[in-house]
Amino acid sequence: MKKIHFIISLFVLATLIGCTNDDGSDIDLDGVSAPTNVSALTTVTQDNTGKVTFVPKGSGATQYKINFGDGSPESAYAAPGEGILHTYAEGVYHAKITAMGINGKTTVADKEVVVSFRAPENLVVVITNDLAISKKVTVKAKADFALFYDVYFGEAGKPDPISANNGESVSYIYQNAGVYTIRVVSKSAAIQTTEYTAQFEAILILNPTASAPTPPTRQAADVISIYGSKYTNVAGTDYFPDWGQASQGSSWGEFDLNGDKMLNYIKLSYQGIALAANTSIDVSGMDFIHLDVWTADTQKIETSLISKTLANGERPVTKDLVANQWTSIDIPISAFTSQTGFTVADIYQLKLVGTPWATGTVFIDNIYFYKEPAESIALPLDFESSALTYAWGGFGNVDAAIVTNPSKTGANLSDKVVKLDKKAGAEVWGGASLNLENTLNYTKGTTVKVNVWSPKVGADILYKMEVSTSPKDGNGNPTVFIEVHATTTVANAWQVLTYDLTTAPGFSTANKYDRVILFPDFGQGGTGTSYYFDDIKQSN
């Protein structure tokens, strides 16, 4: 059995090693953390035999073993989802669950195992609706002498129960809102069980089914982010400091829409967002505050900036919301500073107020301050600006860097260029990518020209553009893209290659391409050579 599990782990390891993305994100196994959230569902047969089954679970684990805590030998390793069986005498035991990750790191968790031949007693059941997820009901049951319990949620066509450890919670999402008969069966090792039945209404909560618009790429100096996944957020921010809202029935959660998290303020009265203690931000150099809001039942949202200086106070701006869709709000900082001399050099809190009061629910994403840049990462690209960060990301064993032009002659006399080192053994698809802050402006043309320095004649220089926010394929790469090839005709000198984007399959001026990718000597493995690129620009 151990040998089989080891072979499986090696297969997974080989798969991970072989995976990489166009953006250069290779798998670092040494950096993979040990498994987390390790536990086990423990069930027992109702026949006075003490036969207990462990089903371990955890994040990042590839195999598990159990020390049963009764002096018997520990189990062999088992795969995720596999049950581990053990027979106990009556008593209370402290088992240990060892979870191993793909790189051999382990985490050990304790598990109390109660084996009693008495039927469960003093059963207490609590049933609640989830405040953030529509039609999600959570049951928590606890009884003396019990090891676990089964819940029958009463939905038609779903006859099988869901099991949970005694005293732990189990949740279920119904297909439809309505009243259901929920039956809880608490179980010990005894033949007799203890039951509880109740009528419960699963409520409908409306929430967004699509993510908020993705913010554009910006230079770090041009944005101060409070919440969102696009930029780096101000550390230590508290999104529910609870200034008394809880007593009014208001609450919050972080809603997860297929991996995209957003703030969820429920029955919004007023809601504070507080920066970490002794932290404030100077937004006097910013032009706007942005936030995306989705609601089904809130008509307006008031946004206030609060100064750390008591005499300065706070100032609000109110915006209308459109029901059942994302409302993107951009409030000029001047809308705050124009109110009786308000200054924004030490903002340490934000406040959100809903209309109507303490009634509606809102989902909020992408809260950040920003300014319009004097310069931006966009075509044309010449790499001469000292104010911009050209964050090229190499992949497939290709390194990328902005360097001094090694050959200021002929077609290129500029000072700075981007260098792509295609190392010995680099992948045939190795290259580098750069995210643009502005998408293509097609009035400037649908042809792209690139100045290229190649060490050889006949190198295939593949030019690719992607819509970074488009759905991802199995390797994590965007599915909306274009690719055009051109071949070098000179060696050790600059030449301009031309790429007609309209010849690429799938090209459309409706697509907002916002990522440039260059592949030097595409289709050939690396031999330890360098390629240089400059002056990427559109033309007609």
From TrEMBL:
InterPro entries listed in its UniProt record:
Ig-like_fold, PKD_dom_sf
Instruction: Give the Gene3D superfamilies listed for this entry.
Output: Galactose-binding lectin, Immunoglobulins
- The name of this protein is PKD domain-containing protein
What organism does the UniProt record list as the source? Flavobacterium circumlabens
